[in-house]
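Private note to self, pasted from the team thread so I don't lose it. Backbone tokens:
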């Protein structure tokens, strides 16, 4: 260590000194509670694994422990919206800003669930396969980029495109969004790839020329298998009278809390959006910033981004 480095404290040290009195260590919070792990089996959260997320249990813990009473809640790096929806359940008015369209779409799909006609959804789900089997002409919706090319078996991609053509005919916008979301949520399962850190790992059965040790991702689901499983999971979570369902946890008070506190989502960069907000507009902030650009989320979520792009330009 040079003499100057012992004399001049680092920016990190200066920041720590400034914030030290405001920090506390909560040793009772396990790794499971602070990471996405705890969301894995929760209704709704389990539909799409946004691994960068933290758990709703953690957000609720913070709000319960440090938030005096429900007010206005902000997450400037909202991801898939864990903060916003956990806050909403507890009566907070939540605003989130998210740069990546993937996270923003997950949040839109969740918002679409509020007030969705579940009987109608079930009826549409039931007729999906008959409708798809009658589609002969369809547009190729998935516009691949280099890192996603050949990610799906040909038949799977055909079925995916037909399903999207069917979705376009659904008039109820909320149902259309949730149906599209179901397809979006199975992209990894039906592909030759698996998310591995910030990259996609390719299975040996793909058409790609691969180097290194062959990777076998195990069973690759057909589109029909994967979508049926996902839609079933969604319906089980949404419809009353099932063994694991959202409404067992959501009593009627909680429902009206959700309806009274819609979540607001701004799609964009918080660097640009935050200065536009009034100062002192929020009572509480719960956030998890993007690790100083250590991860390139656009690579991890390349399949979902290609898919999302189709949604945007439909
Ligand atoms: C660690 S994740 C947050 C996950 C979130 N806590 C959740 O539970 O889903 C960080 C998020 O910040 C987003 N992000 C990165 N830069 C951003 C920016 N300038 N403005 C808004 N969001 C940004 C990333 O896309 C990513 O979703």
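Design output:
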């Amino acid at each position: 260590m040079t003499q100057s480095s012992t004399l001049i404290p680092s920016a990190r040290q200066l920041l720590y000194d400034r914030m030290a009195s405001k920090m506390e260590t909560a040793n009772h919070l396990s790794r499971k509670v602070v990471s996405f792990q705890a969301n894995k089996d929760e209704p709704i959260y389990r539909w799409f694994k946004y691994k960068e997320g933290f758990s709703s249990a953690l957000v609720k813990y913070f709000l319960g422990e440090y938030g005096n009473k429900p007010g206005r809640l902000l997450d400037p790096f909202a991801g898939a919206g864990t903060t916003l929806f956990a806050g909403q359940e507890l009566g907070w008015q939540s605003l989130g800003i998210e740069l990546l369209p993937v996270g923003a779409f997950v949040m839109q799909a969740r918002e679409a669930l509020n007030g969705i006609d579940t009987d109608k959804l079930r009826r549409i789900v039931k007729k999906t396969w008959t409708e798809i089997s009658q589609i002969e002409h369809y547009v190729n919706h998935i516009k691949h980029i280099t890192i996603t090319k050949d990610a799906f078996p040909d038949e799977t991609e055909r079925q995916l495109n037909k399903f999207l053509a069917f979705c376009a005919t659904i008039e109820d916008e909320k149902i259309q969004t949730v149906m599209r979301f179901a397809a979006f949520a199975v992209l990894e399962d039906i592909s030759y790839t698996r998310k591995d850190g910030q990259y996609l790992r390719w299975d040996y059965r793909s058409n790609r020329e691969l180097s290194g040790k062959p990777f076998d991702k195990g069973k690759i689901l057909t589109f029909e298998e994967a979508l049926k499983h996902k839609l079933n999971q969604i319906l089980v979570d949404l419809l009353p009278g099932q063994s694991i369902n959202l409404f067992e946890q959501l009593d009627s008070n909680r429902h009206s809390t959700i309806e009274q506190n819609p979540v607001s989502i701004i799609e964009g960069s918080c660097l640009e959006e935050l200065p536009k907000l009034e100062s002192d507009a929020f009572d509480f902030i719960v956030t998890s910033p993007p690790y100083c650009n250590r991860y390139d989320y656009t690579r991890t979520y390349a399949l979902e981004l290609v898919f999302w792009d189709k949604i945007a330009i439909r």
